[in-house]
Amino acid sequence: MTDIPVYRPGPRAFGQMLICELKMVARDTAGLIVPIGMPVLILVMNASSAGEQVVAHGRTALDVFVLPLVFAIVMATTGIVNMPSFLAAYRHSGILRRLGVTPASPMMVLVAQAVVGIVQIAVGIAVAYAVAMLAFGANTPVNIGAALGVLALTVAAMYAVGLIVAALSPTPNSAVAIGLTLFFLLGATGGMFGGMQNLPEAVATIGQWLPFGAGVQALSSAWVGAPVEAAHLVALAANVVFGTVIAAVFFRWD
């Protein structure tokens, strides 16, 4: 009996899957608008007064406090709420199980979702930043390299948390419910509803070790030109490792 060679899909096949994922995200109206509309709304509500308060190096409270918070909301809603709901839907409908018996590995879906999510995050951040600059005179970060590095690490941390949600959610609705709960918990401990200095000391300490709070604090430091605290970078990296390991242990394709 002659063995039939099996070939893994190439770049063209992955490109087609990427296009399909982009179409799926574009058709999800709520998932498309919320990560862009809600952060911009929060920005507009806080920008007027914050843009007049100079903090240091010519950077205002808008630059140092509001923009990092807005960017964190974009990353969290995409990574913790949107992405897990898609993966849970694919598993619930049997798509991942079917891909598992074809040369197209289900891992391609994870990679495609990550790429699409990064595009969505980039658009959300770009829209918020453009509004802040054109309407309220926002400034660029003092340390642009550090800011970009923190953004990348925070995106990875948010996605790691999102993978845990996807791993533990049996249905798309439960993925949305768990994701939203985590989003608000992380946001509440990370300063989304007021500065972290207004939180109880124990809560603020915990929040600085979670991806939302650590990302906001690290991005604020980079924006004002202060050294990014090692604790915040360690916290983000630890969340990436912890989330990835937990997701790998509990994630099921069917």
Report on this model:
This protein is mainly alpha-helical and 254 residues long. It contains ten helices and two strands. Helices cover 76% and strands 2% of the residues. Strands 1-2 form a two-stranded antiparallel sheet. The chain is globular, with a radius of gyration of 19 Å.
List descriptors:
254 residues; 2% strand; mainly alpha; two-stranded antiparallel sheet; globular
Arithmetic mean of pLDDT: 87
DSSP helix count? 10
Strand order of the largest sheet: 1-2
For the record, give the distance between the C-alpha atoms at the N and C termini, rounded to a whole number. Answer: 32 Å
Oligomer: single chain
What does the radius of gyration come to? 19 Å
* Overall body shape: globular
Number of strands: 2
- Reading the helices and strands in chain order gives HHEEHHHHHHHH
Biggest β-sheet, characterized?
A: 2 strands, antiparallel
Give a summary of the structure in a few sentences.
With 254 residues, the protein is mainly alpha-helical. The chain is 76% helix and 2% strand.
